[in-house]
Amino acid sequence: MFDVLTRGFRNARLKLQGKAELTEENISEALREVRTSLIQADVQIGVVRDFMDRVKTKALGEIVPLTLPDGSEIKVTPQDHFIKSCYDEMVDLMGPVDTSLSLEGNPSVVMMVGLQGSGKTTTAGKLAKRLLAEGHKPLLVAADIYRPAAIDQLMVVGRKLGVPVFSIKGMDPVTLSKMAVTQARNLKRDVVIIDTAGRLAIDNELMIELEQIKTTVHPENIFFVVDAMIGQDSVRTAQEFDRRLDFTGFILTKLDGDARGGAALSIKEVTGKPIKFLGQGEELDRLEEFRPEGLAQRILGFGDVVGLMQDFEKHIDKEEAEADAAKMLKGEFSYDDFVKQIKNIRRMGPLREVFARLPMINELMDQLPPEAMDDEVLSKTLAIIQSMTREERKHPDLLSRPRFARIARGCGRSVQDVTELHERFLMARQMMSGLGNMISNPDAMREMQRSIREGMGGKGLAKPELSVDEKAERRQKQLERRRGRKRGQ
After folding, report:
1. Is the pTM for the entire model greater than 0.85?
2. Run of H or E including 277
């Protein structure tokens, strides 16, 4: 979703390439690129103006050398200094971070508010799943009585999670919320999550209802759920909700959509309330704590390795991952193992989003064809593998051209598609097996290192200069080898 912003900062960096120092003149072009990208991303104009002023002031200041752990110093380039200034100001703009929840009540009450379609019901389920994982016992409350589909959706979410959903047909939301808190005490549930009604726009009748629910149940947490795709409108809406309800913080949803990202940069600065969580997709485990550093790094094109590792640890069992790695290094990797890896990656989000969180991958992704990062490619790969027999998936070496034809018919792909997938699979397995042999064989590892060192003098690289004596010795050995060959003839 941050493509516009990322492109703008990349262009700004290129404008400063090769500059010896930052001046009013050369920095203006870079700032223009940043300003344009922020406005295109729908960042509120006042926020843009303040952000640009702070970046300019910091970037034109003294460039301080960086001190490395060993005590040595390196001087950063003007280009690096400018990007560092942008990063610092962006983190300040979205921070400081506060992802804590107040759960001291008996039970604690969490109230979800926001416009219709912002993702309140799904986010209520995601929050319930998060609380379950932390050892809490949540109760979901279907207080959006005006939209039967919202009640049904919450019921489905509750069944998926094994969490009770409180709902009484025809009861007004204020009384319903009050009774839900009483029911939670009776059922020994320690957190009540109230999914309130929304409107397509701010409605005074709705706001009065929300104020009455707040006065009746005294929630410790009021979260404004905001759709990142509505841009500056989200900021204006947030200001009104905050004025009427004094909410605790934001949950920003639909970050995996085509949003331009302006809300993420504007909303904290304008309201002063922290962003608590980021929601992506419909899966109930796609709710992550907000980290301004990670989001700033992603916008600037530096990825977010910390966030990626947190996702990895959340979705993938460590012992299982280690066992799979050991099998790969032994060359025992099967198609069943391959399918498991694909499913693990998919649980972490869309392919493009996962790779975008690796450092500097954004620039490489722009050079790749769109289909290279298309999740549909993984679906096609899975279709081919699922058309194999159980024995073929377990023992890939059984596969041959006649079998390829049968597999191709089964999945609706061409024989060439099946052949190419199998060839790539065997090549990858062989490479991993070779790497495993080298790791387990110190002599082989040393031999590889020696070959690499010798290769440094190979074609296309400068060969080491020999002394006069070394040259004479080499000529003598060459003559002896020639005489030996002649004697052998």
Report:
1. no
2. strand 275-279
